[in-house]
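Hey, sorry to bother you again with one of my protein questions. I've been puzzling over a protein and I'd love to understand its fold better. Take your time with it, there's no hurry, and the full record follows here:
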Amino acid sequence: MTYRSARLDELRSALDVLGEWPGVGHWEDVRLVAGRVAPLVWEELREREVWHRMEAADRAAVYWALHTGHRISLGWDPAISNWKPFVTELRRECAHFAAQCESRNGHRWPEAEGRADEHTEAVQALLWYRSFHPAWRPEVFRTLNHAHLTERDPENHPPTAWDALHHVQQRTLEGGDKPRAATGHRAAGDGIDVAELFDALPEGWQIEAIRRMSTGYTPGHAVTTAAEAINALPRFGVPLRPVPPP
């Protein structure tokens, strides 16, 4: 007997509403459902006892989706001029976790295609990042940030953390233990501040931040949004003491 969830049926309808915008859909409808979709899938994961079997990075991704949905539901943030990438991201994340709730009915969640592979690559990328001498780690973020600004391919695919790691690996082979010292004051984009913020994140959030760097986030945006999402957790009843989850 197949268990049919009213909660997931509601989620499917809500994701369809999000998918219709900005074509035939209306922004007010998007705002109304955006704040609801992540709590729906979060509730379903916990009811089915999937939540406590999930990896830390997956739990961080759900928390991140809660934060994203809440921001969209407010709809007035002047720092964001184009909500479409965030709405698309929210649909994909919620579909990915809905598919984990009903693995035998995964075709209901086509938005999730390829999402699991991104997680696997991010785990490997974090291990690679940690293999570098600490002096080289900021170079990963500096290289990736530069690539986001200058090196899109003809189909506008974002550069990946994997590409940046490979580039820095080649430089370590040529340059020894440390990169050449930067001259003058710490410049925006030199990677040092991002590396410090990144290294301060819990491991699950580090994996999720790296994954998002390969989906279009710049390194600075990824780590600051991760920190914002962590700080927002009490809004959803998740305590930050003694340490931020997961």
Remarks:
- Residues 27-47 form the longest helix (21 residues).
- The chain is about 60% helix and 0% strand.
- Residues 212 and 222 are 7 Å apart (CA to CA).
- The chain has a mean pLDDT of 88.
